[in-house]
UniProtKB/TrEMBL annotation:
Keyword line: Signal
The name this protein goes by in its record: Solute-binding protein family 3/N-terminal domain-containing protein
InterPro entries recorded: Solute-binding_3/MltF_N
Keyword Glycosyltransferase belongs to the record: no
Domain Solute-binding protein family 3/N-terminal as annotated: residue spans: 24-239
Signal peptide: 1-17
Highest rank taxon of the organism: Bacteria
Organism whose genome encodes this protein: Desulfomicrobium orale DSM 12838
């Protein structure tokens, strides 16, 4: 037992001496990231653990709100990493990104069954966004992906921004504060559970112009060591089938 403990210590010490440890931040966003019995869990948390283990980089997982994560990235912390963020032109001005680690399934629209007929009058996402009688609910610090973010700007879609968890959006839609939200299909079950609303009250819609699933990345400050970034990307290349994340496997 002592021999195993000493071996583990000697494996970790060189990385610590190089200052290679990372604080890995996530926010509650099941099924990707969440806390379970005080421990970080979720599809992307486990994948990130495997990637950093493969890269030989010690990691401490912490939970914090999206705005605080962005503050840490903007401040230039070298030892800070965020799990599962979209790459956008705005973020690329102050952040660095890994190779892609995951692609969401194609986005869908969540609304109530009562509101659905008004949304079904539109056949495209652009047409829906241009209907200013309907309000999009959106977490303020988060992106919907580059193409949807751009479409939001072009159409000036009415938006109800929130700074809390995504589950709150469904409650606001149920209360008629917002009309709809966009989400990946794999998020919906967890969103309904977090909102504590009857699932039969909501319906899922899709329209022309809905983007293929967004790629997710590890995000760091622009001050991350190039050597560390190379090691992480090498680990991603070993563990993630990156070609399968591209449209039609290209």
């Amino acid at each position: 037992m002592k021999a195993l403990l000493l071996t583990a210590i000697f494996c970790i010490l060189p990385a610590l001496a190089r200052g290679d440890g990372l604080t890995v931040a996530y926010f509650e966003h099941p099924p990707y990231c969440y806390a379970e019995k005080g421990q970080a869990a979720g599809v992307l948390v486990e994948l990130t653990r495997d990637i950093l283990k493969e890269a030989g980089i010690p990691a401490t997982f912490v939970t914090m709100p999206p705005n605080r994560i962005l503050e840490n990235i903007r401040s230039g912390r070298k030892d800070f990493c965020a799990v599962g963020w979209f790459k956008t032109p705005e973020r690329e001005r102050y952040a660095s990104f890994s190779l892609p680690i995951y692609r969401d399934k194609g986005m869908v629209i969540l609304t109530t069954a009562r509101k659905a007929p008004k949304l079904r009058r539109h056949s495209t996402l652009r047409s829906l966004f241009k209907d200013h009688s309907l309000t999009l609910g959106q977490v303020e610090a988060l992106s919907l992906g580059e193409s949807v973010d751009q479409l939001r700007k072009e159409t000036q879609v009415p938006t109800l921004p929130v700074t809390t968890k995504q589950g709150v959006l469904l409650r606001l839609i149920a209360l008629n504060r917002a009309s709809y939200m966009l989400a990946a299909p794999e998020e919906i079950s967890a969103l309904l559970q977090a909102a504590d609303v009857p699932s039969e009250q909501f319906t899922i819609l899709s329209m022309d112009g809905m983007p293929w699933g967004n790629l997710r990345y590890l995000m760091y400050s622009s001050n991350i060591s190039p050597g560390m970034l190379d090691r992480i990307n090498a680990a991603i290349s070993n563990l993630v089938k990156i070609q399968s994340l591209l449209p039609e496997g290209r």
